[in-house]
Design brief:
490 residues; five-stranded antiparallel β-sheet; six-stranded mixed β-sheet; 3 domains; elongated; Phenylalanyl-tRNA Synthetase, Chain B, domain 3; Rossmann fold; alpha+beta; Uridine Diphospho-n-acetylenolpyruvylglucosamine Reductase, domain 3; 21% strand
C-alpha cells in the first residue's frame, strides 16, 4: 500500500497496479474497459499501463474523453490530443462536449461539482451504449490524500474522510489508487510518453489546488514527511469502519421504519429518540438517502435540523431540506416526503411569505473563539471556551451574554428561529415554560418573536438569545469548563 511504496521504479509500476487490480478484484479475464482520459499525466499513464496488462488479462479497451468547454482553445487541444492518442494506439475513442459553465448556472453547483457530474454521466452513458462493463479512472494516492484533507477542513464526518473508494458500484475502478503522483510522472518520463498540462491546476482560486500546492507541502515539510501517507491510512481505516457500520445502520433504519413508499418514509419518533446521537445521525442520513437516491446538498446542519424535530416535546414541527424534501412530525411519527414541486412555490400557493427562516450549527470552540453570523437578522454570536477559574465578573454581564456549563452541552449546538412548541426553564425558575409565553411575559414584540435566535443542545432550548438562558445549563460549583456566548451586531 501507499506507506510501503515510498517510491516505485518506473519499470515496476505496472506490477504495482496489477497487484491493486488483483487484490481489490477490479477486473476479470476478458473484461471490456472504458478508460476515462483527459489527456493529463494520470489518465495517460493509466491507459498505457492497462494496455501493457491487457495481454495477460485479455482486456478490450476503449477511450472516453469529455470536453468541458471551460478553457476555450486549451480544451479543444486536449480533446484533439486524446483523439490522436487513441488513433496511434489503435483504440476506439468516444468523445463529447459539455458546456460545464452553463450546467453550473442551471444547477447552482460549483464548477468542480458540475464537471464531476457531467463526466460520470458521460462515462456511464458511453459504457452502456458500447458494451463496456468497467470504467477505469485515473485517481491516485495523492488525489486520495488531498480529498481527505479537504473534507477535514470542511468538518466532514467519517464518511467524508474515508476518501476515494478504489471501486464504486459494479463498474467504476481506480487502478492507480495505491500509486503516488511522482511515480506516475517517473513512468511517463522514463517511457517518453507525452501528455498535456492543464494550467488551471495551478490556479489558487480552487481549494484543491491550494491544498495540493501549498498546504500539503507545508505540513509535510514542517510536521510529517509522510503526511500524505498518513492521510491515506486514515482514509483506509475510515472506509473499512464505514462499510462495517453500514449494515448496522441498515438494521437500525429497518427497526425505526413504520412505513415506506416511493416518495415517503415514516419513522418512529420513540425509537429514534432512544438512539445514541451518533447512530441517530446515521439513521436520518440513511433514510434521506433512500428517499432521494443520494445525499447531494444534504449537510450536517440539515441532519441536525431533523434531529431537532425528533426531540421536540410537543407540537407539530416541520423543516424543509434541499431537493424538495419536507420533514414533518405528527405525534410519534416522523414523515419524510419527497415533494413533486418546489417547496418555495408550494408555500407561496398556500400561505403568505413569513419571516426569513434560518438554521446554523455551532461547533465546539477549542483553542480560539468561533462565531456564527445570522445574515437574515444582521446579528452575530461569538462562542468561547473558558476554564472556570479564569472566569470573573460574569454575574454582572447583560442579557447579550450567557454562560453555560460546557459539560452539559452536546455539540454542535443548533441556532435557529423560534418554533411553535419550544419550551425551556427560564434562569431562576422551576418548571418549564413555553418560549411563546415567555415572549408575552417579557413584552417582546410580535414582529421580533419569529426571528429571535434560539440556541439548542440536542433539541433542548438552552438560550432565548438576548433574553434568558435555561436554568438547567447554568454554571454550578462543579463546573470546570464554561461556554461563553455573546450576541453582537454582525
Amino acid at each position: 500500500m501507499l506507506e510501503e511504496n515510498i517510491h516505485i521504479k518506473p519499470h515496476a509500476i505496472c506490477a504495482a497496479v496489477a497487484d491493486t487490480i488483483y487484490s481489490r478484484r477490479m477486473l476479470q479475464q476478458g473484461d471490456r474497459v472504458l478508460v476515462g482520459v483527459s489527456g493529463g499525466a494520470d489518465s495517460v499513464a493509466l491507459l498505457h499501463i492497462l494496455l501493457q496488462l491487457s495481454a495477460s488479462l485479455g482486456l478490450n479497451i476503449g477511450v472516453a474523453h469529455l470536453n468541458h468547454a471551460l478553457r476555450e482553445e486549451a480544451s479543444d487541444r486536449d480533446a484533439a490530443f486524446v483523439t490522436s492518442l487513441a488513433q496511434r494506439l489503435g483504440l476506439p475513442c468516444y468523445s463529447d462536449i459539455k458546456d460545464i459553465d452553463m450546467l453550473r448556472r442551471q444547477t447552482g453547483e460549483g464548477i468542480e461539482a458540475a464537471g464531476r457530474w457531467a463526466r460520470y454521466e458521460f462515462y456511464d452513458r458511453t459504457a452502456k451504449q458500447n458494451g463496456y462493463g468497467k470504467i477505469a479512472l485515473g485517481h491516485h494516492a495523492d488525489d486520495n490524500a488531498e480529498l481527505v484533507l479537504m473534507n477535514l477542513l470542511r468538518g466532514s464526518g467519517p464518511g467524508g474522510i474515508s476518501g476515494i473508494p478504489p471501486t464504486r458500484g459494479l463498474s467504476i475502478i481506480r487502478p492507480l489508487i495505491d500509486v503516488r503522483r511522482r511515480d506516475i510522472l517517473s513512468y511517463l518520463y522514463a517511457n517518453d510518453l507525452p501528455f498535456v498540462v492543464d494550467a488551471s491546476n495551478q490556479n489558487p482560486r480552487f481549494l484543491r489546488n491550494r491544498v495540493r500546492n501549498e498546504l500539503i507541502p507545508e505540513l509535510s515539510n514542517a510536521y510529517n514527511p509522510k503526511f500524505s501517507e498518513a492521510l491515506v491510512r486514515i482514509a483506509s481505516i475510515s472506509r473499512a469502519e464505514e462499510e462495517w457500520l453500514k449494515k448496522m445502520v441498515a438494521d437500525l433504519l429497518a427497526a425505526a421504519s413504520l412505513a415506506t413508499g416511493k416518495r415517503r418514509w415514516i419513522l418512529s419518533v420513540a425509537y429514534l429518540s432512544g438512539l445514541h446521537i451518533a447512530a441517530l445521525r446515521r439513521v436520518v442520513r440513511s433514510a434521506l438517502e433512500h428517499l432521494d437516491g443520494n445525499l447531494n446538498g444534504i449537510t450536517f446542519r440539515h441532519v441536525d435540523a431533523v434531529i431537532d424535530i425528533v426531540f421536540r416535546k410537543s407540537g407539530q414541527s416541520e423543516c424543509h431540506l434541499p431537493r424538495r424534501i419536507r420533514v414533518r412530525r405528527q405525534g410519534n411519527r416522523l414523515l419524510m416526503i419527497k415533494e413533486k414541486h418546489s417547496l418555495r412555490e408550494m408555500s407561496r400557493g398556500h400561505a403568505a411569505i413569513g419571516p426569513p427562516r434560518y438554521c446554523y450549527d455551532v461547533q465546539r470552540p477549542v483553542t480560539q473563539s468561533t462565531s456564527v453570523s445570522i445574515r437574515q437578522t444582521g446579528q452575530r454570536l461569538v462562542f468561547s471556551a473558558i476554564k472556570r477559574e479564569d472566569l470573573s465578573g460574569f454575574r454582572t454581564t447583560g442579557q447579550e451574554s450567557a454562560f453555560f456549563d460546557m459539560e452539559k452541552l452536546y455539540f454542535p449546538l443548533l441556532l435557529r428561529n423560534h418554533q411553535t412548541g419550544d419550551r425551556f426553564t427560564p434562569l431562576g425558575m422551576k418548571g418549564s415554560q413555553k418560549v411563546q409565553k415567555f415572549f408575552i411575559n417579557a413584552k417582546i414584540g410580535r414582529t421580533q418573536r419569529p426571528v429571535c435566535p434560539i440556541l439548542l443542545s440536542r433539541g433542548q432550548v438552552i438560550w432565548v438569545v438576548g433574553h434568558r438562558m435555561d436554568e438547567r445549563f447554568k454554571i454550578g460549583p462543579e463546573t470546570r469548563y464554561v461556554l461563553k456566548a455573546e450576541l453582537l451586531l454582525a
